[in-house]
Design goal:
The structure holds 2 protein chains of 2 kinds. Helix content of chain A is 75%, strand content 0%. Chain A is mainly α. Chain A folds into 2 domains: 1-103, Orthogonal Bundle (Rna Polymerase Sigma Factor, Chain: A), CATH 1.10.1740; 116-185, Arc Repressor Mutant, subunit A (Orthogonal Bundle), CATH 1.10.10.10. Chain A is globular. Chain B is an all-alpha fold. Chain B has 3 helices and no strands. The longest helix of chain B has 39 residues, at 44-82. The chains are: A mainly alpha, B mainly alpha. Chain A binds chain B through residues 14, 16-19, 22-23, 26, 30-32, 34-35, 38-39, 48, 51-52, 55-56, 58-60, 62-64, 111, 115, 120-121, 124-125, 128, 139, 143-144, 146, 149, 164, 167-168, 171, 174-175, 178, and chain B through 1, 5-7, 9-10, 12-14, 16-21, 25-26, 28-30, 32-34, 36-38, 40-41, 44, 47-48, 51.
Chain lengths: 185, 83
């Protein structure tokens, strides 16, 4: 995790076009950011595309980043906004296809089916994936990605109190779903 | 909310693994990002002027044009009302 001073130094080096500084940031945050996107989108291929666009945006904006930029929250904010933007267009397209009766039934396995070991973890991933988007992103940021609720609130563009409420609702719904899965044979 | 409120699910969530992309794809993204970083450095003046125009000049022109339009409309309406 970046300290503010560390992040400031990296931002200054990125502004000078230092590719080694980029590599430091890239190697440090690539896997957590990818995991966040996979769990947020539920699609491995979409997560990879959004991940790539996030890193290319960092490269494009490297000279214009304010010196006090915290890179980790910045990257998660960009990734999350890219997904939101993608989703708006995808929903429009899906709506149109549904109207025409051309929307195929989704039957492809989820991104965790091949990688997740253990039934409990698979169920947990599925329960997280089934949460409404607002709650899912708050939960992922505050638990899996390790952001404080106030930091998550900045990423989500909402107040800290609203972020805490979303988190509480997400936790309650997750518990409910996991309990239901336990009851099911 | 404090840590005492956290349900037991949280510890499991925090232990969910980070999932990296395939090394070949990771390298492709790295190379493309490096190329962009270098390109950005090679056009410093154009980049900074474009940024200045986009962030300062264009908004100022738009706001100025909007204010002029409002003043013109209000002035015209007042003239009509007075005659």
């Amino acid at each position: 995790m970046d300290s503010p001073a560390d992040s400031r130094a990296l931002v200054a080096r990125l502004a000078r076009g230092d590719t080694r500084a980029f590599d430091v940031v890239y190697d440090r945050h690539r896997a957590p950011l990818h995991a966040f996107l996979v769990r947020l989108t539920g699609s491995a291929s979409l997560a990879e595309d959004l991940l790539q666009e996030t890193w290319l945006r960092l490269a494009r904006h490297s000279r214009r980043l304010p010196p006090e930029t915290q890179l980790r929250p910045w990257l998660f904010t960009v990734a999350r906004n890219l997904y939101r933007s993608h989703r708006r267009w995808a929903l429009l397209d899906a709506g149109r296809l549904r109207e025409l009766g051309w929307l195929p039934v989704a039957s492809t396995p989820g991104p965790f089916d091949a990688t997740v070991e253990g039934e409990a973890r698979r169920e947990l991933e599925q329960a997280v994936g089934a949460l409404p988007l607002d709650q899912r992103e708050a939960l992922l940021l505050c638990t899996v990605s390790g952001f404080e609720p106030s930091e998550a609130a900045n990423i989500l563009g909402i107040s800290a109190e609203a972020a805490r409420q979303r988190l509480a609702r997400a936790r309650a719904k997750l518990r409910e779903r996991l309990r239901a899965l336990e009851v099911m044979p | 909310m404090n840590d005492d409120d956290m349900p037991s699910d949280d510890s499991e969530l925090r232990e969910l693994p980070a999932i990296d992309i395939a090394p070949a794809r990771a390298e492709t993204i790295r190379r493309r990002a490096h190329a962009i970083l270098r390109a950005e450095q090679q056009a410093p003046l154009v980049g900074s002027w474009a940024y200045l125009y986009e962030r300062r000049v264009e908004p100022a022109l738009l706001i100025g044009a909007g204010v002029c339009q409002v003043i013109w409309a209000v002035h015209g309406t007042l003239q009509l009302l007075m005659h």
